[in-house]
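REQUEST ID: PR-0412
SUBMITTED BY: lab tech R.K.
PRIORITY: routine
TASK: structure prediction, single protein chain
INPUT:
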Amino acid sequence: MLRKELKELRLKYGNTDAKTLRTYGSHLNGVVYETLRLHPAVPSGAVRATPPGGVFINKRYVPEGVTVCIPQWTLMRSPKCFVCPAEFIPERWTSQPEHILQRDAWIPFHIGTHGCVGRQLALMVLRLSIANLVRRFDIAFGPNENGEGLLRDSKDHFNWSLAPLNLQFTERANVDE
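STATUS: complete
OUTPUT:
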């Protein structure tokens, strides 16, 4: 489906530059958003201190100076926020919005004044990288690989410390197909 969308974009717009992918690559954007939902760069979330005078969080008063954290891994896999939260469903961001129960729970870049200033750059690089890799290569697990080790053995040290993942890239003969 992703290759088909990329081919259609190349035929219609003559290229797949960053603006075209952002604006018209709906399935690609769904893949990026869904990947970041299931595998946020900072899975445990960043910690913050409550402001002077305290703050109400979900109708509960939290005094000033208390360390708070939103664990992204947990939030973005919560059945209160997403239908079938452990499943990779890129269509939830396009044609199946009913799979999103709380859109504001998607916070892989955090939110507010402490949100990631590189968000748009990161999204652009992801779109361009994925589009180019999918267009140029057939990608599969390597011998004796199924991806389970990556999920099981990667560690959260604020950012991920990733376990090995053996992938096989086979260059496609005709990248325009």
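NOTES: The mean pLDDT is 93.
REVIEWED BY: pending
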